[in-house]
Amino acid sequence: MERPVDFSRSYDVVVAGGGNAALCAAIAASRAGASVAIVEKAPRFYRGGNTRHTRNMRCAHDSATETLSGPYTEDEFFDDLMRVTQGNTNQHLARMMISRSKDMLDWIAEQGVRFQPSLGGTLSLGRTNSFFLGGGRSMLNALYRTAERLGVHVAYEAEVTDLEMDGDRFVAAEVTTPDGTKRLEARALVAASGGFEANIDWLKEGWGEIAENFLIRGTPYNRGSLLRTLIDKGMKQIGDPTQCHAVAIDARAPKYDGGIITRLDCVVFGIVVNNRCERFYDEGEDIWPKRYAIWGRLVANQPEQIAYIIFDARSLQLFMPSLYPPVTGATIEELAGKLTLDPAALRATVEGFNAAVQPGTFDDTILDGCHTEGLVPPKTNWARAIEQGPFYAYPVRPGITFTYLGVEVDEDARVQLADGGRAENIWAAGEIMAGNVLGLGYAAGIGMTIGSVFGRIAGEGAGSYASR
């Protein structure tokens, strides 16, 4: 039975946040013998932050398992991370995280989470990523059930809005609730409350006014209140305010919380043009899980932050569909008209692309080398003429999942101080510290790796501290 937080008492550990990182921390701290209170900003139905929208987690493993088709070594994981971040990562923390990830699949399963065989096809994740049976919400429910059995207390619609400090030591959290502001005292704090992606004004500080056109595919509750408080209280900031997990999502998606079903995986099968009918990047640069998270930023840099994925009938069944149906036209000109694009300009772009496509054997399961020549930008894989009607398009906008600006931590997940040293009793896990590992770029499932590994470390550290 779920136990509500009792604000009249003191806890060993307060965990701010209610997603994967927070729950891993709460469970680990509780198993270490600590009394734990979770403070979750969202209502119970929407609990869990962005974890609600996840599907899988990337972990290193030495051999195939019941749910993974082959080995994924620590070195390969590290190489993938270095490639997508272009070296913008704390290599020591990254290697530690990857090493610790090898134990996480078993540990997570011990907390009641079940996995399914990984999906194949264009996702190309069958060997590297474990998929949650029932998706992220099912995973969350399993973790909450375990936390409840361990005696963890939970407060919903409760947000940490200030911290009471004694030097670099956390004393109590100021918590805003529907019943007013409460003081919650504890011996240790784990900050796992996500980034600030739902705070458009904060996004504008880095991006400028174009942030008004961004869609937030994640939770509307991640507004960065605790992150801002930590920085104001002297914790060390890390990361670029414009770096984030940003994918191209259907432009018809809601402003917030559209989730995974608004993402589009068809970029590799066609061309992407802006509202001037100009291509602006190589759609076939690499397999989709290693490149999908660059497209939000690419679209953000286009006029009016809008773009269009154009493909033909041969590609319609090659990817998982979006929530919304594609726009359809019997001809390229008809398609352009429905998209309010210049029909002649779109026709010229498509014909120019078709003329540049070189002979090859199309294979959507590998880097097939089907490419263009004499075209800027090129398409280096999966290039084939867009010529078989009907023709299709999806309008896309930048979809922000989570931000990378956060607080710096060490290998114990302890938060670092801006003036040197580390906070005595504050740990962090998940998106609020993701910038330590993700300076830029993304590969599928790494966000869950960060949350799980650092959540467990933070919970163990906070629980051990509180029991001294």
UniProtKB/TrEMBL annotation:
UniProt cross-references to InterPro entries, sorted A to Z: CobZ, FAD-dep_OxRdtase_2_FAD-bd, FAD-oxidoreductase_2, FAD/NAD-bd_sf, Succ_DH/fumarate_Rdtase_cat_sf
Record-level Gene Ontology MF annotations: oxidoreductase activity
Domain FAD-dependent oxidoreductase 2 FAD-binding: 12-445
Highest taxon of the lineage: Bacteria
Cofactor(s) annotated in UniProt: FAD
Keywords: FAD, Flavoprotein, Oxidoreductase
Pfam families listed in its UniProt record: FAD_binding_2
Coiled coil: none
NCBIfam families listed in its UniProt record: CobZ_N-term, PRK08274.1
Protein name: FAD-dependent tricarballylate dehydrogenase TcuA
Organism of derivation: Falsigemmobacter faecalis
Taxonomic placement: Bacteria, Pseudomonadati, Pseudomonadota, Alphaproteobacteria, Rhodobacterales
